[in-house]
Amino acid sequence: MIITSYFPPEIGAASNRIYHLAEGLKEDYDVSVVTPLPNYPTGKIFADYKGKFSSKTEENSIKITRLWIYASVSKNKFLRLIAMLSYSFSLIWFFIWNKIPDKVIVQSPPLLVSFTCMFFLRSKRRKLILNVSDLWPSAGLELGALKEGFAYKMLKKLEAFNYKKADLILGQSNEILTHIKTITTAPKMFLYRNFPEIEFPKLTEKESSHGKIKLVYAGLLGVAQGIYKLCNEIDYDTIEFHIYGSGAEEEAIKSLIDYKRELPLFFHGRVNRDELHKALLNYDITVIPLLNRIYGSVPSKIFEYAKLGLPMLYFGGGEGESIIENNKLGWVAKEGNYECLNTTLRSITTEDLKYSLKKAIQDTAKLKFDFKKQLELLKKEL
To answer: Which residues lie closer than 8 Å to 251 by C-beta, 6 or more apart?
Structure first.
């Protein structure tokens, strides 16, 4: 059983990661997924599920149970807490009335939801696998979403409890596993990168529009990504900038485009993943930004774009930098330094972004970012 707060039809790295994990494990296990009624990133229950208290379906031989949640993306911390508590209470109700398998994978964060699972499902006869994709609450502190105080200290206690009760911890970065080892060394640990399971597209030579480099960003338009600030700070002399996605900054970006019509800045909205992959093949380079460097975070876009053969400009610091540099996937600009970002952009020419670079990036992905190989190693640990 996989317990997660995000799952398709929701978009984003978290739902994609869990979907591919479930698909990969079903060859050897009877896999079930427990997740809320879909609501992310809009904060509203999707139309097909409105009015339902729960939903049970079977999709591609995976049993999916969707539970009630008070959906919200409000910046009000009290409302966000209610949303997490509502899903936690739904999970407790589910645990009471349903048989739980002897192997359970729990997604963390959200921290309160993962704590609910680790607390109520702890048993010597059951194997609990904690899949840690971000380090909360420390990441919240770095993002400015949390402040040090009583609430932060309580969250740190929940974090430590979760780690200590796990039999196996999956971390998506070496930084995550290093952090966890400062709290406990009891559980086994496994580096489980967010490698996507997608087809390798055939690459072709493409010419840039009007001699300008076609730069693209695709993903969530949230506070952590800082795309609105990027739109204001970036130097458009040698580039045109295209944006795909949705999120909290969407309206601000649209307003900026309407206000500064002279800028080569384009917003394409949200498209499904397959359409997005086809669209991305038309661009020269992508930017992967984080407004602030978040310890433990390695954007999954790195591995996805590598499979597409799309060169990257990484602007987020941390472990992601070394992955880009060590594997020659593109360029790195110092996080938070827009002058460095623009200097790096101006140094990149259309000649640099030729077919041979894209092919080399894709070949690296085939060799080093293989989802199936990683999954087979994980199965041995399960």
So the answer is: none
Shared-domain flag, residues 360 and 219: yes
Q: 182 with 237, same domain?
A: no
Q: Name the nearest CA neighbour of 103 among 127, 73, 124, 76.
A: 127
Q: Looking at the 3D structure of the chain, how many domains does it have?
A: 2
**Same domain, yes or no, for 277 and 242?**
yes
Which domain covers residue 52, as residue numbers?
Answer: 2-197+370-381
* Amino acid at residue number 288: I
- Residues with Cβ within 8 Å of 306's Cβ and at least 6 positions away in sequence, in order, are 312, 327, 329, 361, 362, 364, 365, 369
Residue 223 lies in a domain: yes
How confident is the prediction along the chain (382 residues), in pLDDT tens digits per residue? 999 999 999 877 788 889 999 999 999 999 999 999 999 878 889 999 998 999 999 999 999 999 999 988 776 777 878 888 999 999 999 999 999 999 999 999 999 999 999 999 998 889 999 999 999 999 888 877 778 889 899 999 999 999 999 999 999 999 999 999 999 999 999 999 989 888 899 888 765 556 789 999 998 888 778 999 999 999 999 999 999 998 889 999 999 999 999 999 999 998 888 899 999 999 999 999 988 788 898 988 999 999 999 999 999 889 999 999 999 999 999 988 999 999 999 999 988 999 999 999 999 999 999 999 999 999 999 9
The interaxial angle of helices 301-308 and 319-326, nearest 10 deg, is: 20
> Are 143 and 219 within one domain?
no
Q: Are residues 148 and 186 in the same domain?
A: yes
273, 342, 274, 329: which is closest to 298 by C-alpha? 329
Residues 137 and 240 in one domain: no
Q: What is the DSSP string of 212-270?
A: -EEEEEEEE-STTTTHHHHHHHS--SSEEEEEEEESTTHHHHHHHHHH-TTS-EEE---
In a domain, 202, yes or no: no
Q: Is the pTM of this model over 0.70?
A: yes
Q: Does residue 280 fall inside a structural domain? A: yes
Residue 351 and residue 280 share a domain: yes
**Closest C-alpha among 12, 49, 14, 56 to residue 33:** 56
Q: Is residue 204 part of a domain?
A: no
